[in-house]
Amino acid sequence: MSKSARSSKLAELRALRESGKKRLDTYEVHQEEDLYEEVDEDGYKKVIRERLNQDDFVIDDNGEGYADDGREDWDRRQGYDSESEEDARPKGKNGKASKRKREEDKTKRENMDKGINNYFTKGPVVAQPKAKPVQTQADNDFMGDLLAEVDTNVLPRASRHPPKQLTRRTRALSPAIQSAESLSAKRVKLGDANDAPPAYDDDDGNFIGGMDDDVPMSDPAPSSPVQKAVERKAQVAIKAEEEDDYDAMEVAQADGIAAASVNMSGSRPVLKLIKPDPYLTPASSSPTRPLPEEVDASAWNNVTSRLNVISSSPPTDTRTYGKMDYKDAIEADGSLNMFWTDYTEVHGSLCLFGKVKNKKTGEYVSCFLKVDNILRKVFFLPRDNMYKHGRETSEEVDMEDVYKEVDSIMTRMKVGMHKIKPCSRKYAFELEDVPKEGEYLKLLYPYNKPALPIDLTGDTFSHTFGTNTSIFEQFVLWKNVMGPCWLKIEDADFTFLNNASHCKLEVQVATPNLITPLTESDSMEPPPLTLMSLAMRTTLNAKDNKQEILAISARIYENISLSDTTPAEQIPSRTITIIRPVGSSFPLGFEDLIKKKSRGLVKLCRQEPEILSFFLAQLDRVDPDVIIGHQLEGVDYSILISRLQTRKTPGWSRIGRFRRSDWPGSMGKIGGNFFAERSLISGRLLCDLANDAGKSTMTKCQSWSLTEMCNLYLSSGNNVRRDVDNEVALKTWATTKDGLVDYIGHCEADTYFIAALALKVQMLPLTKVLTNLAGNSWARTLTGTRAERNEYILLHEFHRNKYIVPDKAPFKGRPKMEQQDQEEEGGDAKKKDKYKGGLVFEPEKGLYDKFVLVMDFNSLYPSIIQEYNICFTTVDRTTLSDDEDKVPEVPTDQDQGILPKLIATLVGRRRQVKSLMKDKSATSEQLATWDIKQLALKLTANSMYGCLGYTKSRFYARPLAVLTTYKGREILRSTKELAESKSLQVIYGDTDSVMINANVDNVADAFKVGHEFKRAVNDRYRLLEIDIDNVFRRILLQAKKKYAAINLLEVDGKFVEKMEVKGLDMKRREYCALSKEVSSKLLNEILSGDETEVVITRIHDYLREISGKMREDLIPMQKYTIYTKLGKNPKDYPNADTMPQVQVALRELARGKTVRKDDVIAYIVTGDGKSANEPAAKRSHTPADVMKADSGLKADA
């Protein structure tokens, strides 16, 4: 623009200002084509929605300080423009007229904002998000007083910057406080009222919140006019607007952003609060929502009210804050005793996490130990003759030739320091061209150097072993570390590390030679642990189709001894609950109510980032050793990690104990998330009740839901858990202040149930003892890796005996953790991986009303391995390469092999422990400890056979598995023949047991027959033993592995009858509870022993009664629920349309929920006369969907 044109425009503006007019008044609109698009109301709504779906103009603002309602804002000027231009203008005789004009302009703009043809409809309020404040005449008078005060205190005119030219349409920020017509039609009933209560922050004892830089503060600045508008909004009756009301949101002023300052000290009448009926906080964007449903929260409130909850953390004089002084932890000789619990591998060093005792306070605190200079051990097997250009020559190879070739390889790899020396080793595995014993060249070099290829060969050596051995495996084998134990650390460096972890003490040792494991004989008990049970509530972000965290509740148990048998409800605990509103605010009065009712710390947050930051701060403060949850692994924990990464939460590595600044590179990649997520929590053990380890301790369950676990294992009537539909709750009963308090109570109750279950089934003590027996990692045992436990116990045993062990097979992508043996799963197993298992006799079907004896071999396969000395080191497999199913010869005249010796040791130790349990003077803690130990020994001994036939095991040896099962079949046949030779009828046999019809009516005579047969069988073998397992009064034998019987159990010297069912529908999760109930009733009738005609009549009457109730819908809907386990991920099924469980799983995935392989899906097949022709898969729905009041669905009866 030229200088003259600019001067002309400025002169024009000056003239308009002096005349009191605006540029808009003289602006002439020139008609142009295609300047705008004409749309109807529906089209305008669509435009607004599209604008709202776009990313915010202000990036990463977290919704604090900027809001866009999607509507046009052509003629509205910003609030700061009005205050700087109009309010600072000198007032003359036209002051009142101009003021009136300004108010009329505001009214006109407000009417325009209402949209096309009153687009935003009015209606009675039912908890609508952030309704626009409606102002009364009192508000107008109050604002007038303020403006008058400003008018009478005019400041000198300051220099002003030229107004910025807007090159695009503007979108509204939080609306300024505006005048509105008084509500004359509906007068407000006046009553006493105070300002809206401030954000609640309870007295948290010694808890600390997140640091200021963790998350932008969302509390408004005190002088913000927006805050006052929010407060006034809560003090008047407001009208609701429906779903499409995209009015501008009122957003709290973000910390650090300057707010326009207004003097709010003017006088104003006190408004009286009219209580909404009811006043609900929004939980969804639905235009209409049902009134809150009644929910009986007494079940879980009664549970939490009985708990031993303490309101604050322990006294500060017994706690260690920040890093501790190493002088308070070392022994008199300068060494340090540390009980290690977990590990991680970092840049060629092994990092151990554990606990040390603070001798000053007496408490046990977390410790981080970095072990440097652990060396790889690689073994090279020399060739007999030299190879040149890929061909064998007649030149013999000596160790010097191998040394030179290996040294040249190390030089090319620029390894630097390495050691090479010859050694003797034995080999007993499946590579045919490796001698049973021979000379090897051993190479040692640091782990921070590259690994050699696993299939490396050379001109002078034919095989390489140990190239991919992990640093953890190398350490525990070298130092003979058998699971979690006390380590004595000498010459430790306490100053080398600085904030490398989140532990209280950090230690470094230059070499593993300075570490010595202490044995049980040193009488050092494991330290007490800090447990945190965790329950989360999430909500679906429909836009991103991702679950976001709504609430986190944690219950902390401190100083828990693994041998303590005290029930969870009696153990002192503390609770932390962090929650944010689903909509824009909490229900009115909720802050005060939760402050009165809560027994623990409840932190109210505005947004998800605040929840994450506060949770991490508390996690760092509490520093738990174990985090316990239900569906934690793969669901809740994965969501938590995902949200931390998405929100870029500062200090995210506090989820574990190793301090990190960068996320693992494999995060978010296919196959990489599992191990990456597990590595982040290193230092804290993750105990999940619903993973493989948890399921193995709760074998009574079928669905492994938390409610089912509580019903089966927390048998007390006071420990009843009620399922709650989270989505329904957030839309109905949890939208009131009382309902939201009950919602928090349900989450807090779950933290108790989770901890109580883990303590009840003694999951931590059992997994620790299993880890001590196997010598692997406690964290890995807690994932349920039975195959890995078998692997490590054999690794330790063969390493002690100087054997070269098989290398771990390399794999790509995410490994399948603890897969079941393919032969057991069937389906995808290749034929070559199958071999004959146990022998099953064809049953003599029918109903037997005479006593039947079940004779069972104790631990058949482990006993066979001992009886016939079956081992890698004893069985000759060199002649079996051409026929994989050929049974190898039983070894004779050989020393006891390593495998049978190991099993014999485990069996012998169990026998000793069981003898200790007979001590009547033993305490309950001692009995619990011994019981856990004998169970762990039994599980370990019985699982040793599994590694022989498990194709993915490092110790897979098909010939040994074939020989073991062959001898099992042979023994079972021999046992049947022996019974028949004594005129006893064998009516059924399966793998390790036979059923014998004793053909007597007296229990004493039945036991006499059993003992005589037991003696005859056991005399045939040296170690194999058969015993009476069950005595059946009556039995209905239907098919292989399917029968029902009345079992006699001895209780207090008397026999008690109990029904035992195997394989029938009432024992399978694929059948609903009603089916099982009917089956149980029928079996009770059949096995009652009454006259046949009487039994048939009762059965017919019962079936007529049940069918009538089904037709009249008198059967509770829950009894129609079917449970089916997914064999693969839902999207991987090729015939998903015909499978009900897959269809239900796919619908759950579409809702943003997590569904994975091995999950148990619950569903009900629905139907009526109209939909009967549709496939059952299409008519299957989750129980929650069917039982919704407005679903219109009912079971297909």
Overall SS class: alpha+beta
Counting DSSP E segments of at least 2 residues, the number of strands comes to 30
β content, as a range?
15-25%
CATH fold topology of the largest domain: Palm domain of DNA polymerase
Q: How many domains comprise the coordinates?
A: 7
CATH class of the largest domain, named: Alpha Beta
User: What number is the mean pLDDT?
Assistant: 80
Q: Give the number of helices.
A: 32
Note the gap between the termini: 83 Å
Relevant CATH superfamily of the largest domain: B family DNA polymerase, palm domain
Molecular shape: globular
Approximate helicity band: 25-40%
**Sheet with the most strands, sense and barrel status:** 7 strands, antiparallel
- What value does the Rg take, in angstroms? 38 Å
Low-pLDDT runs of 5+ residues are: 55-69, 73-94, 112-133, 144-292, 813-832
CATH architecture of the largest domain: Alpha-Beta Complex
Characterize the structure shown:
- The chain folds into seven domains: 1-31; 39-159 and 170-241, no CATH class; 298-307 and 528-763, Ribonuclease H-like superfamily/Ribonuclease H (Nucleotidyltransferase, domain 5, 2-Layer Sandwich); 320-373 and 482-522, Beta Barrel (OB fold (Dihydrolipoamide Acetyltransferase, E2P)); 381-461, Alpha-Beta Plaits (2-Layer Sandwich); 796-1063, B family DNA polymerase, palm domain (Palm domain of DNA polymerase, Alpha-Beta Complex), CATH 3.90.1600.10; 1116-1186, 3-Layer(aba) Sandwich (Ribonuclease H-like motif), CATH 3.40.1820.
- The strands form seven sheets. Strands 21, 22, 23, 24, 25, 26 and 27 form a seven-stranded antiparallel sheet that branches. The chain has a six-stranded mixed sheet with strand order 13-5-4-3-12-14.
- Strand 23 (985-990) and strand 24 (993-997) form a beta hairpin.
- It is an alpha+beta fold.
- Helices cover 32% and strands 16% of the residues.
- Mean pLDDT is 80; it is low at 55-69, 73-94, 112-133, 144-292 and 813-832.
- The protein has 32 helices and 30 strands.
- The protein is globular and about 125 Å long.
